[in-house]
Amino acid sequence: MNSRRGPKSKRADSKPAQVVAEADAEDKPERIAKRMARAGLCSRREAETWIAAGRVSVNGKLLETPAFTVTLKDRIEVDGNLISAKERTRLWLFHKPAGTVTTNRDPEGRKTVFETLPEGLPRLLTVGRLDINTEGLLLMTNDGGLSRELELPTTGWLRRYRVRVHGKVNEQELEKLKDGIAVDGVLYGAIEATLEHVQGTNSWLSVSLREGKNREIKNVLGHLGLNVTRLIRISFGPFQLGDLPTGGIREIRSRMLRDQLGNALIERSGADFDAPIINLAPEVARSASKAVEQGGDKSRKNAKPKEKLKRGGVRSETLSRLTTSKDDGRGTKRGTGKGSSPKSRGGNKRGKR
Questions:
Q1: Element (H or E) spanning 221, and its range?
Q2: What is the pTM of this model?
Q3: Can you tell me the mean pLDDT for 83-98?
Q4: Do domains 25-87+275-300 and 89-155+244-271 have the same CATH topology?
Q5: Which residues contact 195 (CB under 8 A, 6 or more apart)?
Q6: For position 27, what pLDDT does the model report?
Q7: Do the strands 81-82 and 76-78 form a parallel or antiparallel pair, or are they unpaired?
Q8: How many CA atoms lie within 13 A of 148 on its CB side?
Q9: Which CATH architecture has domain 158-236?
Q10: What is the pairing mode between strands 61-62 and 134-141?
Q11: Domain residue extents for the chain
Q12: Phi, psi of 307 (to 5 degrees)
């Protein structure tokens, strides 16, 4: 049987060219911020902030600039805690409840989307943001590069919403939104909006867009004399909310995720589907974030993480308090309760609807 394999190579210890190429690619030097993002610890921008605050060291030496490259052989620590190597790119579908804010911590004490997540998940980043009043599909990933790429309007992924509005709907005006519209000096791209059905003075619309500027749906429909009283995102690109329950989260399988992203998007984002799956200790990310918020005291770089964030169930919120009506010009919103000032709504951050 051995004779059928042909003569042995003169270099018995040589590796196939493909294996050597893969090994070289795996140990290719890359920026420290990118490596931290690939490990699922934070975004690249957050990594740069942590480095500037003196929280990151490589091979025992404190970094002073993010302009630094590392390989798999380097030992990277945040607050004295060793971080893992690259982690496989992963993506989750999350059904965001209304009344939760898309942020890690809220200075006003409002419930965040991360407080509703179950234990055992790695450090996750959201793909864009949804306004506190908006519910429905929110993509989450452990890969900062993928998150940033999917947020970009140039990616062109369609986002679909079901919208309940109060007021008389003019279908001809909805049709004109396909050509774009300018509202208060802001130019919005093409929006597909159709009337689904009417319930008394309320109507349900189907709205699709690709750009997703801050509060885009609320601002555009408000310009048409319609007050948005409920906003539900039902899809983002190829990913559907489906029957995922409120507060529920489901991971997309790696093979399906790779197929849905496509080669071009994978290359642009730097997604890695060959690395192992590693659940990073969430307290590493939390301790570094908290240290930066407290002033970035370099002398505390070896401080131990404090107790974990408490995670709980999803609180139900009455929809009557979650209207996205237009401001009345006095800094408050018509038909809302306490805490609905522009400041309490989290400010104008890109990606919120």
A1: helix 216-223
A2: 0.66
A3: 88
A4: no
A5: 169, 171, 174, 203, 204, 205
A6: 61
A7: antiparallel
A8: 15
A9: 2-Layer Sandwich (3.30)
A10: unpaired
A11: 25-87+275-300, 89-155+244-271, 158-236
A12: -55, 150
293 pLDDT band, cuts 50/70/90, is: very low
Helix (H, G, I), strand (E, B) or coil at 234: strand
Domain 89-155+244-271: CATH class, spelled out: alpha beta
Position with higher pLDDT, 144 vs 136: 136
Query: pLDDT at position 353, please?
Result: 52
Homologous superfamily, domain 25-87+275-300 = RNA-binding S4 domain (3.10.290.10)
Model confidence over 198-221: pLDDT tens digits?
Answer: 988 999 999 999 987 889 999 999
* CA pseudo-torsion sign 249, 254, 255, 257: positive
pLDDT at residue 279, rounded to an integer: 58
Contact 175, 190 (CB under 8 A): no
Stated length of the chain: 353
**In terms of C-beta density within 10 A (0-12 exposed, 13-18 middle, 19 or more buried), how is residue 321 classed?**
middle
131 flagged as catalytic: yes
Q: Which long-range contacts (CB under 8 A, 24 or more apart) does 297-301 make?
A: 298/53, 298/54, 298/62, 300/79, 301/54, 301/55, 301/57, 301/62, 301/79, 301/80
Residue 211 has a CB neighbour count (10 Å cut-off) of 15
Q: Catalytic residue, from 13, 27, 79, 131: name it.
A: 131
